[in-house]
Amino acid sequence: MQIKLTVAAALAAMSGVAMAQDIVVKIGHVAPLSGAQAHYGKDNENGVRMAIEELNSKGLMIGNRKARFEIQAEDDAADPKQGTAAAQKLCDAKVAGVVGHLNSGTTIPASKIYNDCGIPHVTGAATNPNLTKPNYPTTFRIIANDNALGAGLALYAADVLKLKRIAIIDDRTAYGQGVAEVFKRTATSKGMTVVDEQFTTDKATDFTAILTAIKAKNPDAIFFGGMDPQAGPMLRQMDQLGLTNVKYFGGDGICTSEIIKLAAGAKSLSNVVCAEGGASLAKMPGGTAWKTKYDQKFPNQFQVYSPYTYDATMLLADAMVRAKSTDPKAYIPELKKSTYKGVTATIAFESNGELKNPAMTLYTYKDGKKSPLN
């Protein structure tokens, strides 16, 4: 009887050791999963899910414990209030780290919440330069910001296309207004004339009055600071008003596959020149092979940012492994020291959390397909 009890106790103790070696690591993800921008959000979430599946297949060890990663996905509907609520929810859930948000308008207010609760967040989509101005130790960006995108587009317009007269429209969001301001500043510094400035919202679909006013000013090009749910209808309405010879510039918010569907055959699509922070998939270190795997898992869902959300998830895990801890206090210092060889780039950070040496790619649309210009 005594022997049986001893064996049972030993088995129980061994079971306890095994349980202690396993750790569940929750990674938060926030993006619009409902509303007009849900296609971006789903693509971003797919990137996180793909990374988590691969991490779990590797049986990753953090310290002496086997880690099992889980996603906690939240929908912010591209709304700042919902974004801060989602951030607080992730803080309350004590997730180990966050990938997100998509929009600058949600990411900037959420960044303070993450800082206050000490959880790092990595965005591969929010590009407004103001995100890193507070210098929070919890904020990281792995994509070029609007200073690079807006300036790059303006330089292309001036130096390559030799354009002189520009009209500007923005959707009044943190992203749209920010990238438009950088474009305007660079364009005027290059001698271009801003002939008109108009404003809309990120919910609008009718731009006839705005475009009619702009047409009267005879511009060479229109710059739009906003997202593709507005850019698609705008391109169709440009066709209707006979603006098919006017170039159409925009940042990464319009630089999607979805805009092809939303433009619905508009001739003006071929006049689009848009910019993304980062290399084209073909020029990313692991882009082509990664895209093949993505398409197998998520057919016809790729938009723009999923390679970055994939890298962001892997980056967080890498820092945890190096720190031998999932505690943000322990692994944030390692995150800051990263030189992670990702799919999108080798990721290393400036002191304020900005990506070192970010790339930028310009695109156009030829025969209904997105094509890199550089």
At a glance:
The chain has 374 residues and is an alpha/beta fold. 44% of the residues lie in helices and 20% in strands. It has a seven-stranded mixed beta sheet with strand order 8-7-9-10-11-14-15, sandwiched between helices.
Description of the structure:
It is a single chain. The protein contains twelve helices and 15 strands. It has about 375 residues and is α/β, with parallel strands linked by helices. It has a seven-stranded mixed sheet with strand order 8-7-9-10-11-14-15, with helices on both faces. Strands 2-3-1-4-5-6 form a six-stranded mixed sheet. Helix 4 links the parallel strand 4 and strand 5. The longest helix has 21 residues. It starts with a helix and ends with a strand. The N terminus is likely disordered.
Poorly predicted runs are: 1-20
Helix content: 40-55%
What overall geometry do the principal axes of the alpha carbons give?
A: elongated
Helix and strand run: HEHEEHEHEEHEHEHEHEHEHHHEEEE
Beta-strand percentage?
Answer: 15-25%
Separation of the first and last Cα atoms: 78 Å
Walk across the major sheet and give the strand order.
Answer: 8-7-9-10-11-14-15
Report the biggest beta sheet as strand number plus sense, adding barrel if it closes. Answer: 7 strands, mixed
Number of strands: 15
Report the total helices: 12
> What oligomerization state is this entry in?
single chain
Category from helices, strands and their pairing: alpha/beta
- Report Rg: 23 Å
Quote the average pLDDT: 94
